[in-house]
Amino acid sequence: MITKLLSVLAMLSATCATYAKEQVVVATQNTSIVFTIGDNGRLYQSYFGKKLDNAADYALLPLGKEAYLTHGMEDYFEPALHINHSDGNTSTLLKYKSHATTRHEGYTETIIRLADPVYGDEVAMHYVAYEKENVYKTWTEISNKNKVTLEKFASSMLHFYSKKYFLTQYDGDWASEVHRHTQELLFGKKVVDSKLGARADMFTSPFFQLSFDREATENAGKVLVGTLAWSGNFRFTFEVDNIGGLRVISGINPYASQYALARGETFRTPDFIFTLSLNGTGTASRSLHDWARRYQVKDGLGDRMTLLNNWEATYFDFDQPKLLSLIGDAKKLGVDLFLLDDGWFGNKYKRYNDTQALGDWVVTADKLPDGIGGLTEEARRQGVKFGLWIEPEMVSPKSELYEKHRNWVIRYDNREEYYFRNQLVLDLGNPEVQDYVYGVVDGLMTRYPDIAYFKWDCNSPITNIYSSYQKASQSNLYIDYVKGLYRVLKRVKAKYPNLPMMLCSGGGGRTDYEALKYFVEMWPSDNTDPVERLFIQWGYSQVFPAKVQCAHVTSWNKDASLKFRVNVAMMGKLGFDINLHEMSAHDLAYCKQSVTDFNRLKPLVLEGDQYRLISPYEGNHASTMYVSKDRLRAVVFAFDVYPRYSEKLYPVVMEGLDPAATYHVKEINRADGSQGSVTAYSGNYLMTVGLPLFTGNKLCSRVYELTAR
Ligand code: GLA
């Protein structure tokens, strides 16, 4: 007994002697995160907040909570890490080993290495801090010398200590995405997660806002905005503990995903991206928009193409003459690209509806006798680009692919198949399937090098959750699917670096920042009713720039004028998905004018700073503005939705302008094609008094262009 005690004491003193009080500071321009190595050698998060003026003050901070809490030790709340060792021991204890920071143009990267002295589990916490944008990206690498199973493996754990916490989440359903809901967090756990496998979102988006002390508004309050860069199951856990502290754990959803790690293998978690704004959600959004364009989204700083899509104009009902005429329409409209949607493939089983042919990526010969080549040729002749819809991860049970490669499909051999939108998901964890999916794009590009754009869809979550490839490691299925997808997308990007693709998943199922590394833009929702879109675009704009939000003019909501529909779509990346032949000459002329206006406004809407002036959640009106980075130009959109009788109409007070500059304000994009008169105002006036932009009319919209003189 005494010998045992002595050896424990000897071990303790050895550890104590090794650790002086040392701190690791990860900082951006406005905020900092401070970690302290405790006397016991463990790593604590001592601070996350406004950067302190004197760096020396960091030494005065209380120790705080253990930064990356592990299962099996003294903490009684949700851990970030839980490892099952092969001897049956499920505990992990992490001690600080080393850290290093490297500087890059615009950001720093800090790696803190921790290790379990008993089992040799190693954890490397990565923090990339983007200085100017005040954005952080963090992930964890977990490795072990022996074979282990990861039970819980968070990307990030953050600790807060405030009087109150308010969580805003964005949830909904298909065609009803990103509805904002806020609640106060009290003792206990609130979990926001998804279990859809091949996408993050259908019911709830992989991002949140968390305000401290009081609910943040657009321009006031301390608020954390976080999002997980992962196109599969995610989980955010918010837990208020016994002393009123809040832990925020973000990562892959560990649900049914115990991950088997071979000896010496490293598990890298997805990135958790976050920003802490000290003055409201507007600043947080603009920080994320800047960061996304500069560092994350494919061709984030490049131009975007306006387009005409045939989906809502034809659905599956088209043939070659109809498409040739639509390509001509794209030219007439003045857009950059014609996009052919679902319905062009399959011969044994033809894609006449959504019940068959997914997987058979060959042109339906009797529908399109001259193939895709005939269409790209016409597009070339008309001077527009040609884009094509694909859904390469999916298979219809009625398809040649299914008949040939049933073992590539995620399905049960011993149960009846269950279908989501009449289709099944291919097993992307299987390298053979990865080659096949890559081959869909590569094959089409090789045959038809004039394809200038893909819309990559993914309409089904993973169903019938069994992989014949994974055999005994079924719980790797969810994670390996997403990793397999990224392997494919990486190969596509490497071979076709300049090929733009739109990310779609039955509407907004894949609205996450990891996928956006491979896509230039995304489809936020199948709901294109402009009133709904005011809310949907508002919701996504919390985290994603307008540049990645495709917004198409369609014939949804016949009560709304064409102008209203176009104006809503002009607040994102403009496109059309509408039958031009049903339009009057006047309406067609209006759409053409709108394309011209949008092209002129692109530097504002797609590259500028977005200010959400009046929220559609506040009542019957909405207004958003975009200001160029040099503050010389701006555009303001104002919408009256369903105003009440005799409603009070308040002026719209603008933001982001130069108070000292004089702006010429002109209404543009008017329904009758006339030019609005120009009035001059100072930036100060516009940002103090504002302009009366709202009316009492239902479904009414106006657009104002501001130019500094
Ligand atoms: C999904 C997409 C739509 C359209 C259809 C085609 O629902 O979100 O835009 O491409 O698939 O089947």
Automatic annotation (TrEMBL):
This is Alpha-galactosidase. Residues 622-706 form the Glycosyl hydrolase family 36 C-terminal domain. Residues 43-262 form the Glycosyl hydrolase family 36 N-terminal domain. Its EC number is 3.2.1.22. Belongs to the glycosyl hydrolase. It is an enzyme of class 3 (hydrolase). It comes from the Bacteria. Residues 1-20 form the signal peptide.
